[in-house]
Write a structure and sequence with these properties.
Family: Belongs to the tRNA nucleotidyltransferase/poly(A) polymerase family.
EC number: 2.7.7.72, 3.1.3.-, 3.1.4.-
CATH superfamily of one domain: Beta Polymerase, domain 2
CATH topology of one domain: Beta Polymerase, domain 2
Structural class: alpha+beta
Pfam families: HD, PolyA_pol, PolyA_pol_RNAbd
Helix content: 40-55%
Shape: elongated
Order of helices and strands: EHEHEEEEEHEEHEHEHHHHHHHHHHHHH
Radius of gyration: 27 Å
CATH class of one domain: Alpha Beta
Keywords: ATP-binding, Hydrolase, Magnesium, Metal-binding, Nucleotide-binding, Nucleotidyltransferase, RNA repair, RNA-binding, Transferase, tRNA processing
Organism: Thiolapillus brandeum
Strand content: 5-15%
Number of strands: 11
CATH architecture of one domain: 2-Layer Sandwich
Strand order of the largest sheet: 3-4-5-2-1-8-9
Length: 414
Amino acid sequence: MTTKTPLNPPEQGLQTYLVGGCVRDQLLGRDHRDRDWVVIGSTEEEMLARGFKPVGRDFPVFLHPLTREEYALARGIGPDGELHTHPGTTLEEDLARRDLTVNAMAMDPAGRLIDPFHGQQDLEQRMLRHMPCFRDDPLRLLRLARLAAQLDFRIAPETCHLAADMAARHLLDKVAPERQWQELHRALSTPSPRHFIEALRECSILHAFLPEIDDLFGVPQPERYHPEIDTGEHVLLALDKVVDLSDDPGVCFAVLLHDLGKAVTPREYWPSHRGHEALGVPLVDRVCQRLRIPSRYHQLARKVARYHLLVHLAFDLKPATLEKLLSDVDAWRNPEDFERFLLAAQADAQGRKGLQEQPYPQADYLRQVFVETQDISAKNVAPGITGRKMGEAIRRLRCEQIGRIKKQQAHRKN
């Protein structure tokens, strides 16, 4: 019987280091799913010969044939001032190309830390500080704010000043909308989307990225309904609340945009904002078209902007109005989105100073209306009715059922 000699692993003999976010998260004691490696002193030809699979577009990145982890050749600045991946590039040269000091650390396979730019010190201070090449990619403006929210870190004053200068020069306009949306989506999935918006405002980035949101700050609302008064502050409170209700970034996105119409209310009508729901829909469309937001996020945000106030008034609505509300938000054909719609409306209602724990029975009432009307269909209509009359008959049956539910609600109150 012969024993096969095991093959050497593809990375054996390469000079490799863990880099970036996985090193940062490991030092913070945070879970990290993905590990990224940098390879010093190698070439594309050698990586391919070892079985690594190329995936990088702008510079050589490879997938390990067994672990599927990413291995990138070290990058540095060549004599022509352009990025290169020459085998002579050092680890420190590569780390110097990173965005922030906390991401410019490496760890060798034995676990020894390489930290030429004092990123560990900034970790201990919970501070985000830029590297000299920060301005090379304007998307880093959004990543900066997203990391602040993700890690609950502060942004160094000099970094905030640089970011404000980059935003004022409209550098974000050079970033593909899809990349901007990807960063926003990740930010809305953090434990504190509020922190993301606050970081953007602190560094004067918000107006360049989401002027529709920035315009809400300083717009007053009636104190009777909004003790926090400021519309922008209300949006932040609603973001706090939605995190408690759902981990769906689509719901969070809808909450972020739900009150855009209040920014275009003429000042002479302040603090009232009559009709802001309809006024907000074109602004939602503008944001979603500019950032090329996926349709399912766009449609939910439109529904929440247009109809959230009707949810708050649900107990006072007539059966026909309730039926139309559920029809307009497509509840019977898309029940999952209807639930997301209700959660966003609840976040709006409870995202108010001192009212975060107030009951919101309107959502359960509308859930009951939905459940008790969802099975009403053509089979409940008398034979021989077709076309438009069929739709009218179904609506009439739904309204009758909703009327019975309203009577039950009134009876319970009495």
